[in-house]
Amino acid sequence: MLHRVLETIHQRIASGDTNSSYVASLVQKGENQILKKIGEETTEVVLAAKGQDRAALVHELTDLWFHCLVLMAEKEISLEDIDNELRSRFGQSGIEEKASRNKS
After folding, report:
1. pTM higher than 0.85, yes or no?
2. Scanning 61, 63, 79, 98, which has the fewest C-beta atoms within 10 Å of its C-beta?
């Protein structure tokens, strides 16, 4: 499903139809607006996680992932890029991974 959503996002960006496409209008407003939406959605995830409503948390996580996908499309980052990064970290503790970044 993530591949389908990302492909649709790419299509909406390419269409440039800001009157009928939320994605096109968001991207047209620029990177700062995309980042603002990610910040807002992140806050909503935190608030939902503090509550007891699992469905609300799933909803907010989906919104956050969607806006991250918009950013990925705008920055030309693929799901494969993310998959490769996760694979490179798999089997390594988070402490080790962070330490390896600090040595660079």
Report:
1. yes
2. 98
Exposed, middle or buried by CB within 10 Å (0-12, 13-18, 19+), for 12? buried
What is the count of structural domains for the chain?
Answer: 1
CB 45 within 8 A of CB 57: yes
100 found inside a domain: no
Give the Cα separation of 6 and 79 in Å (integer): 8
18 part of a folded domain: yes
Instruction: Report whether 74 contacts 31 (CB < 8 A).
Output: yes
Q: What is the pLDDT of residues 28-69, one digit of tens each?
A: 999 999 999 999 999 999 999 999 999 999 999 999 999 999
Model confidence pLDDT, tens digit, residues 1-32: 999 999 999 999 999 999 999 999 999 999 99
Evaluate whether residue 84 is within a structural domain. yes
